[in-house]
Amino acid sequence: MNLANKITLARIFLVPIIMFLLLINVNLSELSFQDFSITWNQILATLIFIVAAATDGLDGYIARKNKIVTNLGKLLDPLADKLLVAAVLISLVEMDKVDAWIAIVIISREFAVTGLRQIALLEGAVLAASTWGKWKTAVQITMIIALLLNNFPFTFIDIPFDQISSWAAALITVYSGIDYFVKNKNLIPLTE
């Protein structure tokens, strides 16, 4: 168990803490300013989410820099990413902050691309993250933060950034999924 894998495991262990803060009312009161209000639970959950999302790049960087890439890390890292995003999206649907269809599109794409990666592994190939996949991750994280913060600070200037970023995340997610499958169509067995 090297440092990179420990960081990845920490990201997995942060998921239930974030969900607890978002879904269980622990009455930490609210922060209010003019017409804007947000619970301290949401603020704390957002901060933990940002830390967890930041560890995604950190664990990979440490593993590559120190040449400690392991099979366990290759398995845990994408699993941790998907758990984090899916859990928070499902929580946001429960909180009525994002439409269920957007969460379904994003989570479905993750399952589909993970399946394609598994097929590639069986064929002895590794699918590297594409540029669109990296954009997808950045836009999804931005969307989640905007939704968790109740559109702060954009709510003060009447810009529905949380909704705009939700649509952008859905569109880029679909496009990046299609991009993966088109570029790797040779891995998909059409007949057995």
Automatic annotation (TrEMBL):
Catalytic activities: a CDP-1,2-diacyl-sn-glycerol + sn-glycerol 3-phosphate = a 1,2-diacyl-sn-glycero-3-phospho-(1'-sn-glycero-3'-phosphate) + CMP + H(+)
Record's subcellular location: Membrane
Chain segments annotated as coiled-coil in the UniProt record: none
One Gene Ontology MF term: CDP-diacylglycerol-glycerol-3-phosphate 3-phosphatidyltransferase activity
UniProt entry keywords in alphabetical sequence: Lipid biosynthesis, Lipid metabolism, Membrane, Phospholipid biosynthesis, Phospholipid metabolism, Transferase, Transmembrane, Transmembrane helix
Keyword Endoplasmic reticulum: no
Pathway entry: Phospholipid metabolism; phosphatidylglycerol biosynthesis; phosphatidylglycerol from CDP-diacylglycerol: step 1/2; Lipid metabolism
Record EC number: 2.7.8.5
Predominant place of localization: membrane
Membrane protein topology class: Multi-pass membrane protein
Entries under Gene3D superfamilies matching the protein: 1.20.120.1760
Transmembrane residue ranges: 7-26, 38-58
Keyword Oxidoreductase on entry: no
Name of one Pfam family that matches: CDP-OH_P_transf
Protein family per UniProt: Belongs to the CDP-alcohol phosphatidyltransferase class-I family.
Protein function: This protein catalyzes the committed step to the synthesis of the acidic phospholipids.
Protein name: CDP-diacylglycerol--glycerol-3-phosphate 3-phosphatidyltransferase
Organism the protein comes from: Paenibacillus aurantiacus
Gene that encodes it: pgsA
